[in-house]
Structure formats: C-alpha cells, structure tokens
Amino acid sequence: MDFWAISIEIAITVLMLLTLLVDLLLPKDSDRRAVAFITVIGLVSVFVFSLGQYHLSPSETFYMGLFIADNYSLFFKQLFILGMIFVVLFSLEYAHKFIRYRGEFYSILLSSLLGMCVMASANDFITLFVGLELMTISFYILVGFRMDKAASGEAAVKYLLVGSGSTAVMLYGISLIYGATGSLDFLTICRNIHLFYAAGLAGVVLIMAGFFFKLSAIPFHMWAPDVYQGAPTPVTALLAMSSKAAGLAVFMRVLYVAFPILGTYWMTLLAAASALSMIGGNLMAMKQKDVKRMLAYSSIAQAGYMMAAMASADYAGIKAVMFYATLYLFANVGAFAVLSVVEEERGGTTHAHITGLSEASPMLAAVMTISLVSMAGVPPTAGFAGKIYIFTAAVDYGYVWLAFVGFVMSMMSIYYYLLVVRAMYRDLEPQEEDSARPIVPNFSVRVTALLSAAATLVVGVWPDFLARATNFASQTFMR
Amino acid sequence: MFDFALYHAWLIPLLPALAFLVIGLGTRQDKKKSAIIGITAIGASFLLSLGVVGAVLTKRLVMAAPFVMKTVWAHIGGMDLGMGVLIDSLTAMMLVVVTTVALMVNIYSVGYMEHDPGMGRFFAFLSLFAASMLGLVISLNFLQMYIFWEGVGLCSYLLIGFYYYKISAREAAKKAFITTRIGDFGMLLGILLIQITFGTMDFIELKTLVPQYIWISGTSFLTVIGLLLFIGPIGKSGQFPLHVWLPDAMEGPTPVSALIHAATMVVAGVYLIGRAYFIFAELPIVMNVIAWLGGFTAFFAATIAVTQRPFKRILAYSTISQLGYMMLALGVGSLTASMFHLMTHAFFKALMFLCAGAVIEAMHEEADIFKMGGLRHRMPVTFKCMTIGVAAIAGLPPFAGFFSKDAILAAAAEVSFPLYLLASVTAFMTAFYMSRLLFVAFFGEVRDDCPAQETNAFMRWPLVVLAVLSVISGAWGHFAGFGDWVFYGVHEEEAINWAIAGSSIVLSLVAMWLAYQIYVEKRWSSFQIARRLGVLYDLSYHAYYIDEIYAFIRELAVDKLGRLALWIDTHVVDGVVHGLGRLAKGVGAVLALPQNGDVQRYVAIFYTGVVALVAYSLFYAVKILSVTGGAF
Questions:
Q1: Quick check: A53 and A11 in contact, CB under 8 A?
Q2: Residue from B56, B68, B70, B65 nearest B2 by CA
Q3: Nearest in space to B349 (alpha carbons), one of B293, B395, B393
Q4: Is A458 touching B (CB cutoff 8 A)?
Q5: Other Cβ atoms within 10 Å of B162 Cβ, number
Q6: Which of A305, B166, B186, B590 is the most buried (most CB within 10 A)?
Q7: Domain ranges in chain B?
Q8: Which residues contact B416 (CB under 8 A, 6 or more apart)?
Q9: Contacts from B71-76 at CB under 8 Å and sequence distance 24+?
Q10: A144-161 as b/e: b if 16+ CB within 10 A
Q11: How far is residue A250's CA from residue A22's CA, in Å, rounded to a whole number?
Q12: In angstroms, rounded to a whole number, what is the distance separating the alpha carbons of residues A177 and A203?
C-alpha cells in the first residue's frame, strides 16, 4: 500500500473537507471569498507539489494495481488542477453575484476535481466507474447551482436523466466485459482472447458509448447544448475542458491498455464518431446566436478533432491529444472568463450582449479573440500547432480522409468564431451606444484572462516546450 | 565586456522589438516618450553592436569561423527548425552599419517629424523595422532570414504608406510590396528546394554539405536553386527588371528613405548573397548572371538619374545604380569589395537622403531641384554635408566612396574588361548627375521666394556624424584592413591599383567639370543638349517607359485574365461557395432541429446511437465467426 501514489487525491480530499469546515465556521452573512482563496491556495500548492512527482522510474500502483500513478496521469491531473484554479479565480465575482450557496459550490467543485483525478489514474473498471460517477454526480449538482435561473435547474435535470442512461449503458458494458473475461483489471483483460466473443465485442461498444456521451460525440451529444447554456458559466467552462479531458484521459487508457487487441474494431468506430462530431458540431455551431451555446457545439467538434488523433493509436496520437487538451484548456479559460464577465455585466451571452466589447473593454475583447482564433486553429496561436500535431498523427496512421474532413471543417469553423469577433469589434449603431459603456473586470479575472491568452500565444509561437512535456508523459504511458 | 555583447547578441534585435511593443501598445499618443523609447532602444543595440565588433576582433571570428548560438524553435515531422544568432565579421559589420544609420535616422526624425501627429506611430514602425533588419542580419538559417526578410518588407510597406491619406503614398506602398513579393516568391522556392535537397536550411551545415553535393552531383540543379534564390535580391535590392518600386518608394517620409530605401533594407539582397556566398561562389553561371545584371542595372539606372528633376528621385536611381555596383562586385567574386561598398554607401547615401529631407522641408515640400538654387547661402551645414556626400559617391579621394569604388573597379577589371568598362562609364555618369544635383540645388542665385533656412539641431547633428563617417570610413576601412576580416575563401590582396584609381579620378573630375560648365557657368544650355538628344532624353526622362510597359502588359494580359477570372468568380465560384455556405448552414440547422429541449427525444437519440453501436458489434462478431468457422 503505497500512499505516496495517491497523495494528490488525498490532498484534494483534505482540501475539500477543509472548505466545508471553513464554510461552516464562517458567519452566515460573510461572502465566501475566504473559501475561494483557500481553494486556490490549496490547489496551487497541490500543483506545485505535483510537479515533483514526475519520474523516470517505473510507475507506482496502489491497492493491487487498481490505481496507477504514472506521468501520463500526472500530466492530466495537473491539467485539471490548473483548469480548476483558473475557473475559481475568474468566477469570484460571478459566484458572488449569482451563486447562493458559495461555500458548497467550492466543495463540490473540488469533489468533481477529485473524480477527474481518480479517472486519470484508473487502472481498473471499478476505479474508473467510481471516479467517473464522482465527477458526473458533482457536475449534476454544479449545473443546477444557479437558483435564480430556471434554465439552470432544467439543464441539471436533463443532464441527470440522459447521464443516468449513459451510466447504465456503460455499467452494462463493464458487466459484459467482466462476463467475457472474468476480470475488471485492464492489464488482465488485455490478454484475454474472450474479448472476441459477442459479449466482449458488445461490452466494448457499450463502454465506448458511455465515453462518447462524456465527450459529447455525435450522436451522443444531445444533452450538451442545453446543459452548457443552462449551467453557470464557470461550470460550463469545466464541462468543456476538464470533464472532457478527464473522459479522454481514461478513454485512451481503456482503449490502449485494456482493448489493444481489438484495435481495428474500435478504431473504425472512433474514426466514424470523430468525423461525425467534426462535421456535425461545426455545422450546427454556425447558426447559433448564443456564444455559450455556440461553444457547446464547437466543443463537440473539438472532441471530434481529439478523437481523430486517438484513432491513430500510437505515441504521436497520444501526444497530440495531450497537447490539444492543454491548449484547449487555455482557450476555454480565456473565452469563458470573458463570457462570465459579460454575463455579470450585461445579463447574457448572446451576440447582442457581446456587441461593442472592444470599446467596453479592449482587453477582454482581445483575450476572447485570441481564444477563439486558437480554437479555430489559426496561427500564431496554440490551436494551429495543436491541429498540426493532430492531423499529422492521423495522416501518419493512414487516416488521410479523416484529416481531410478535419481540415475542411476547421476551415469552416473560422466562420462562426469570427462572427463573435465581428460582433465585438464592429462599429456601433447610434442606438447601441450603451454597449460602449466601459467594463472593468476585477483583478483576478484580468490575471486569468491575460495568463490564458499569453499561454495560448506562447505555445503557438514556441510549441516545443509543451511538445516535449507531452512526449515525456506519453512515452511513459505504456511502460 | 565583449563577451557580454557576444553572448547577448540576441538582445540587439529584441530591444527595438520591445520598443515597438511599448510604443505601439502604450505611448503611441505621446510623441516625446515614443521618441525617447525608440532612440534608447536603438542606442542600446548600437552599443551592443560595437561590443560584438570588439568580440569579433578579439576572438578573430572571420567568416570561416563564426560564433553560433542556436535554439530549437519547433520540431515538425522530424525536422528541427532552429532560430538563433550567427556572428562573424560580416554580421558584425552589418550590425554596426544598421544600428549607426538607424540611430542617426531616429535622432533626425525627432526634428523631422516634430509637427506630424503620427510621430508615435512613426517611431513604432522605425523600431519594428530596426528589429526585423537586425534579426535578418544575425540569421543563422534561410528560414529565419526569410521571416525577417518579410518583416522588413512589411515595415517598408507600412512606412512608404505612412502618409496613408495620400493616394500616391498608398499606391507606392502597394507597388513596393507587390513587386518585392514577386522576388520573394522566387526566393521562397529556392529556399524550399534547398531544404528538400539538403534536408537543412542552416548556413553552417550547408557550408559543409554544398561542396560534397557538388562533388557528387555537379552544379546543374544547384544553378537552378541559385537563380531562384537570386530572384529575391533582385526584388529587394531593386535590380532590373524589378527596380520599379524603389523610385516610387520615395513617397514615404525622408528619414525612411534614408534608412530603409538607401542604407539598410535594400542592401538585404546583397547581404543575402554575401551570407550564402558559399553556394553562389560555386556556381559560375549564377555568378555571371549576378555580375552582368548588376553591371547593367548600375549603368541603366545611372542613365535615368541623369535627367530626373525631383531631388529624392535622383537619389533613388542613384541607389539602384549603386546596388547594381555591389551586385557586380559579388558577381565578379569579390565579397570584400561589395561589402566594403555596402558600408560606405550606407553612410554617404543616408547622409544625402537626410540632406534631401532637410532641403525639402526647408523648401516647404518642393522637390524639384530646378526650383531650388543658391541654397548654400541659406543652409551652409547642409550644403557642406551634401558636398561631402557627392564627393564620396563620385569617388574622389580621400572620401569613402573612392576606396570602395576602386576596389570594385579593380575586381571587375581582373575578371572581365567589358564589365570594367561598364562600371567606369557608370562611375562617370554618377559623378555627373550627382554634381548636377549639387550645382543646381545649391549654387546659383537665391530665388526671391525661397523660404529655406538651416534646420534645427536634431536634424543637423546626425548629418554631421554621417558626414564624418562618409569621409573617414573608406580610408579607415582600407588602411585598417577591412579585407582582413570580411572575405570569402582566400584572403584578398588590396593594394590600390593606381592605373584604375587614377583613371577613375580623372573621369570623375571631368564629369564634375562638365556639370559645372553646364549648370553653373551655363556655357552650354542644358535645354539645347536635351533637344539635341531627342529620343534618348525622352527615354531617360521617362525611365525607359518601363512603368508604362508594365502597365501595358498588365492591361493586355493580367486585366483581361482578371476580368475573365472575375466573371468565373462571380458566376461560378461564388455560386458554388454561397451554395455550399447555404448548404452548410442548412444542414447545420436541420441537424440541430431535434434539439428542441425535449429530454425524452434526447434519450431516444442516445439509445439509437447505442443500438447502432451494438449492431456494429454483432456484425463484427458474425464476421469473426465466419472467418474462424466458430472454432475459436
């Protein structure tokens, strides 16, 4: 029992309990900023602490191999922690204004983070399921956290209903796998020839259906737009980046570690889902007038890109996914930080609400532009480098058609991303003078927005460092 | 101290780049702060460049033994793209020339742009230009060079079009950009072929690879690459037939003309060939093309300059002609002479352009030299500086141009007599038209309506500094052994060939005497001569109608083609594109239709997906069974 392997999870759990406790100790009428600060400080220290856990030695496991702490999982955990720090920072004001039970808000954010971290390290279907459910149930609650908005509650119920269905399907898949192979441990399953029987094959697709749901891949995406739009903006940001990245992290481990012998079988499915998501997500995003909803569809497409890299099941693909997940996190932080400020100030996130943002706050408009341009994959932002890695990986593996679909669709995506930019920068009509009223975001929002935009540009101009980091993490993956 | 400069040479382009950011994002509205930031940055770069020269001299970093600092910029598909610093004597010389002229021009601009509301923007662009140019100079591979090459092109475009409210300035900016882009395209092809052939773009690596390659496969393919590469310098350094943009570029503010279109950017082409001399020197055909094209351009531009009337236009054609000289020197195999002339030319031509700026400002934007006259009484300092500039370009000893021009003539005489003749005739004409400029504008009677006065101190002192450099840089370079440092291959002997030098001095003096007789003594009427020459005069005055020929070709081919393309575009392509766009939006809308908020439907679609996946799995299972026959 090597507790060192789960030290990050322990730290997050302690932090979560601490926030609950502090919330109880604080006087009833105090704003809960103290809790937010404790969360941020705690997470920053966990992040710094986790930097020291990268290793060249063989990876450690915990509790008979149910849980594995390798560089790959560590990379993803740091990604989740970073995303959470950013989200808590930029949502300080937002939470103050819209969220009624803020103390619990932070605790549940942390419990979702704990779920993600467990997922990244899952080496067994039970661990996977526990982590997944911890994250998902936390999200059901978080989505409904805006008591003042009916849409928020509606979104939560929808997410719960469809999500339960997906959980049931996935659990059924896991039970079929157990039935076929007699094991739940990835490393045992991977050598079992019984996967080739109907039960095994069906189990694999059912598990994949569960993941497709998490990644909101078409045709399992129906929940995403409504939930993204209804959820509080910081939670939407987490759904788009961290929840998706967590799903990807464990999805890759399941496919590459547990089911490598069925490679040709699931690769076809993955490529098909990827193509469908890229095409459908981008096409459907075009007509959206609400930026949050547009980003929901765009996140479907982004998941499609990342699955395209996954379909080429080798190091280059893993590396591309990790690279892309990271830059997608930065782009999302930037976009959603701006959106949350806009929502606070102007009460909504449609194109009409962001009109004139370039006059109201040039900095926010610039950050938004950089983030969206990065999602569209235009140089010199990180998105460009990321797409190069993804499509190179796909082409190298022989999925030229998939890369081609990706090229064409990411070209088309520029249209709807730039619609937002146009709304922010176009000249104002006389009757819209209101939109030029200055917006002054508070310090933490400014820091987060600028950091994310800077990261997007730096990674775009000098992708080498991140590429090396992902290389390192991905190469220890299958050792 | 020198080590510090050498190991921090990357700061030299970075400081002006930071100045650009600070001015552009922050102090653009504040003239004084912008000027201080710009000048401080370039001043620091200048000091660092001096340090680099010191390091080159103490460590003896000649071209065969450069100092390299390299970092990997990106890996793409197994290819390492590097960025970094390559310091040798050539780089050090360029660094000093560029930073000196840039510093002088920056200071001068404080006076020149004083009343312009766009002064902040001007300093931002100047800083960006300095950053790009210095980045180009320290490049260690073709890619880095190409990036900064485009960077200086962009700055040139921005600065020519600085007075964007003037249509002529906008047009000139476009012309410059498009014309040089034509050259850049050829060069890009050359660079890509180098990458394909050698698998690297790094100068140091290429230097070892090229001789091996030639030894194995000969020079035929490399000649193609060399010619393609040379197209870039043809555009950038204003060689015939892509020289047409340079005279029009005079629409920009005069300090810009001095910095970019005389001293630094236009010599980038010459520098590129010098930097890649290990390729060019191996290719006799390409060298011949360079030499003859350079010689022809030198002669051709000089014949045009003889009849021009606007002050800056004369200088522009003279620049083209002098660039031709540098190309000629490269083509006949004397890197030393070419780079030497590049350096002296940068000083005296920048000097003359800055004088032109002072004169034109004093004359309230009047550019025609025949409307000036007697300015030596009104602007004594400017007059003295201009005289030094003319003496330098005419090649009179002991001014700078004498030594460098003599080196070129000597190098040409060694290789080919016709080229030597061409160069000598050009030198004669150069002396003539430059004296004409000087005599017409500065001698004679002061006109009654002449508003000219001496300019302010900001504009005067840079003139003096450059004048001093125009006097001493030649002799200093000659006696301090410029050729001991900047040379390619075997170290060259450089005693002055007095037969060549003497005849060139005599030719220059004759030309100046002729100009004096015509324009000051009025012994012969310039009108009469022009009439006598008839067609020749017209051809020269209209720059051989090359612009008109290009316009004609454009109308004949490009416009017709363009109209056809427009028709296809509006009726076919647009139709398809709009159709596709509408289709995409329509499909998107249809796909989003089920998205009506009805959660039962969502679940239904979800399970449809699940059923489809399970169906696939069953299909696959049956396939496996049919393959294995159930035995498995």
A1: no
A2: B56
A3: B393
A4: no
A5: 19
A6: A305
A7: 1-140, 348-540, 542-593, 599-632
A8: B291, B332
A9: B72/A464, B73/A462, B73/A464, B74/A385, B74/A462, B74/A463, B74/A464, B74/A467, B75/A464, B75/A467, B76/A388, B76/A392
A10: bbbeeeeebebbbebbbb
A11: 33
A12: 5
Query: Does B74 contact A169 at a Cβ distance shorter than 8 Å?
Result: no
pLDDT of residue B146: 92
Distance of alpha carbon B279 from alpha carbon B194, whole angstroms: 11
Nearest to B606 among A166, A225, A412 (CB): A166
The alpha-carbon gap from B620 to the nearest alpha carbon of chain A, in Å, equals 8
Q: Which of A58, A406, A116, A102 is nearest to A241 (CA)?
A: A116
For residue B3, count other CB atoms closer than 10 A to its CB.
12
Contact criterion met (CB below 8 Å) for A424 and A65: no
Q: Which residue reads 């899952």 in tokens?
A: A122
Angle at which helices B89-112 and B268-275 cross, to 10°: 170
Phi, psi of B480 (to 5 degrees): -85, 0
Predicted TM-score (pTM) of this structure: 0.69
Chain A residues touching B589 at Cβ < 8 A: 287
Within a domain: A455? yes
| pLDDT tens sequence across B503-534 | 888 888 998 888 888 888 777 777 777 777 77
For B620, the closest of A157, A201, A213 (CB atoms) is A201
Rounded-to-integer distance, Cα B460 and Cα B32, Å: 19
**B617 shares contact with chain A (CB less than 8 Å):** yes
Q: Please give the residue range of the domain that contains residue A293.
A: 278-479
Is A395's Cβ below 8 Å from some Cβ in B?
A: no
Show the beta-strand stretches assigned E in A5-72: 60-62, 67-69
The answer to whether B613 contacts A269, with C-beta atoms less than 8 Å apart, is yes
Q: What whole-number distance in Å separates Cα of residue B150 and Cα of residue B66?
A: 25
Residues of B in contact with A408 (CB under 8 A): none
Question: Which chain B residues contact residue A157 at CB under 8 A?
Answer: 599
Find the CB nearest B606 among A197, A222, A225: A222
The span from the CA of A324 to the CA of A314, in Å, is 15
The interface pTM score, or ipTM, of the predicted complex is 0.88
- Interface size, chain A vs chain B, as Cβ–Cβ contacts under 8 Å: 102
Q: Which residues of B touch A286 (CB under 8 A)?
A: 584-585, 588
Provide the pLDDT for residue B312.
Answer: 87
Q: What residues form DSSP beta bridges with B87?
A: B67
* Residue A82 confidence (pLDDT) above 90: yes
What is the number of alpha carbons within 13 Å of residue B456 lying toward its C-beta?
11
pLDDT bracket for residue B539 (50, 70, 90): confident
How many distinct structural domains can be found in chain A? Answer: 1
Contact at CB, A165 and B76, closer than 8 angstroms: no
Peptide bond into A441 cis (omega under 30): no
Contacts A280 to B, Cβ<8 Å: 591
Q: Where are the beta strands (DSSP E) in B6-136?
A: 67-76, 79-87
Note whether residue A313 is domain-resident. yes
A166 chain-B contacts, CB cut-off 8 A: 606
Q: Determine contact: A454 vs chain B, CB below 8 A.
A: no
Q: Phi and psi dihedrals of B27, rounded to 5?
A: -95, 20
* Residue B233, preceding peptide bond in cis (omega within 30° of 0): no
| Residues of B in Cβ contact (< 8 Å) with A275 | none
A170 touches chain B (CB under 8 A): no
* Interchain pair A222, B601: CB under 8 A: yes
In a domain, A35, yes or no: no
End-to-end alpha-carbon separation of chain B, Å? 78
At A479 the pLDDT is 47
Tell whether A165 is covered by a domain. no
Chain A CA closest to residue B630: A197
For B19-32, give one letter per residue: b (16+ CB within 10 A) or e: bbebbbeebbeebe
Q: Do B620 and A265 touch (CB under 8 A)?
A: yes
